[in-house]
Amino acid sequence: MSVDEKTVRRIAHLARIAVTDEEVPHLQGEINAILSFVEQLNEVNVEGIEPMTSVTPMVMKKRQDGVTDGGYPQKIVQNAPATEDNFFLVPKVVE
Fold first, then answer.
1. What distances in angstroms separate CA 74 from CA 3, 6, 50, 83, one per listed residue?
2. Nearest-CA neighbor of 37 among 12, 8, 2?
């Protein structure tokens, strides 16, 4: 797979990168080199290999999902400049 000048300009436009006419051939070569490297990865035999997220086997640390504190909303909002029904009152910022 290779890209043409039109595709390079489209990629630059989507990435919001200003590209001059002199830079297009260089970028075209760079993108084609990247794509050829990615095509080489298709030649690697990965049959029987499990997908992994790390180079070392590890188990994600998890904790019990439970309420450990709370039940005193009056104390939480007591220093707030303005409250209503144990909620913080803030000024309107969007109309």
1. 63, 63, 52, 10
2. 2
CB 88 within 8 A of CB 80: yes
Lookup: tokens for 61: 């640390």
**pLDDT tens per residue, the chain (95 residues)?**
789 999 999 999 999 999 999 999 999 999 999 999 999 988 999 899 888 878 887 888 888 888 777 788 888 899 999 999 989 999 888 87
**Three-class SS of residue 83?**
strand
Angstrom distances, CA of residue 20 to CA of 13, 25, 48: 12, 10, 47
Residues 6+ apart with CB under 8 A from 84: none
- Round to whole Å and give the CA distance between 87 and 78: 10
Phi, psi of 24 (to 5 degrees): -60, -50
Which of 8, 10, 48 has the alpha carbon at shortest distance from 28? 8
